[in-house]
Design brief:
Structural class: alpha/beta
Strand content: 25-35%
Radius of gyration: 16 Å
Largest sheet: 6 strands, mixed
Distance between the termini: 22 Å
Bound molecules: inosinic acid, magnesium ion
Shape: globular
């Protein structure tokens, strides 16, 4: 039995707008990595970036490999405490590789700060970040966002990979969670 969950409310980004913007951002990433000597490693931050990674990977023309990383940030409700922990590391050796972190949303910035430190420790040759959504008004850490598809206001959003209590990841568009 699932506990009652707030319903996804207002539409923020529809599937067509997301598709168009993913193609546009992919073209910019292609330009940046054109001529790279080894395939770009797309590092999907599970689980939220699953669907974005799948669409982005198929829009890119540069050679890529795909791996995943799982991190957990301890927090209450809908915000991060800042304590981020590695749950599952990628299996690809990342030393010397060009790595593109693929995130669903950059909120406080704690997750991205942790990922940058982790990849530096692994000896990645370069680390850049693409995010589907950027909630810049909530930033607590200064982090570099190299490519962002959409800026979103300070509200909790679900769909296209993003969840609330593990629900709504499969919605094709991004909606504001209606907590009223
Ligand atoms: P951080 O606060 O930047 O460390 O973000 C941590 C993680 O919280 C993100 O990668 C998301 O998985 C999750 N998150 C932050 N804001 C939202 C939201 O509005 N909806 C769903 N997940 C979110
Ligand atoms: Mg995430």
């Amino acid at each position: 039995m699932h506990s009652p969950s707030p319903a996804p409310g207002g539409l923020l980004l529809d599937a067509a707008a997301i598709r168009a913007r993913v193609l546009e951002v992919a073209a910019g990433i292609d330009l940046h990595y054109a001529g790279a000597v080894s395939p770009l490693v797309l590092l999907c931050v599970l689980k939220g970036a699953l669907i974005f990674t799948a669409d982005l990977a198929r829009a890119l023309r540069v050679p890529v490999e795909i791996d995943c990383i799982t991190v957990r940030s301890y927090g209450q409700g809908t915000s991060s405490s800042g304590a981020v922990q590695l749950v599952a590391a990628p299996t690809t050796p990342l030393e010397g590789r060009d790595v593109l972190i693929v995130e669903d949303i950059v909120d406080s910035g704690h997750t991205v700060a942790f990922l940058h430190a982790h990849l530096a420790a692994e000896g990645a040759g370069s680390t850049r970040l693409v995010t589907l959504l950027d909630k810049a008004s909530r930033r607590e850490r200064v982090v570099q966002v190299d490519w962002s598809c959409f800026h979103v206001p300070d509200c909790f959003v679900v769909g296209y990979g993003l969840d609330h209590g593990e629900r709504y990841r499969n919605l094709p568009d991004v909606r504001v969670l209606d907590t009223s």
